[in-house]
Prior knowledge:
30% strand; two-stranded antiparallel sheet; 4 helices; alpha+beta
Amino acid sequence: MITITEILATLAAQRPIFHSEADFQHAFAWEIHRRLPNASIRLERPLAPLNNQLHLDVWAAQENTILAVELKYKTRALSVRIDDEQFTLRNQSAQDIGRYDFIKDIRRLEQIISDRKNIVGYAILLANDSAYWTRARGSRPVDADFRLQEGRNLHGILRWGEGASEGTKRTREKSLELKGT
């Protein structure tokens, strides 16, 4: 099986920017297909054993090995032309919610991997918004447990801090427990 590092390095050289998460997802899966033409590749594969409403972004199976990948593409506003293609990214904001959702993807991948053999899972967050990888300024923010700054190891039970608004937590009230690190 190929490595995620190889796929991302190739994409970085070919595509410095994507129009959307779906565009990133397609390019990612296409690169897997290019390198493993006999692999069975599925986008948005339903995960019925867990919940009929949940889908995995990329599922690639070849022989006895499965690659399960969750992708997030979080953007700040940007308008740029590269060659003959115009890219206009919107400011998605709500980085606290984006971080929660990304960690929720990691938790789901842990569940998927524990339920099956010969499977490797990756959660990939691609962003042009430095709020995803820089430390919070000041006192402890309400999303401190969900911060993703470089060098941070996530583990254990992660929850919203005191003062997190009901609007922020809506549909994201539950703590997230990571089994691994």
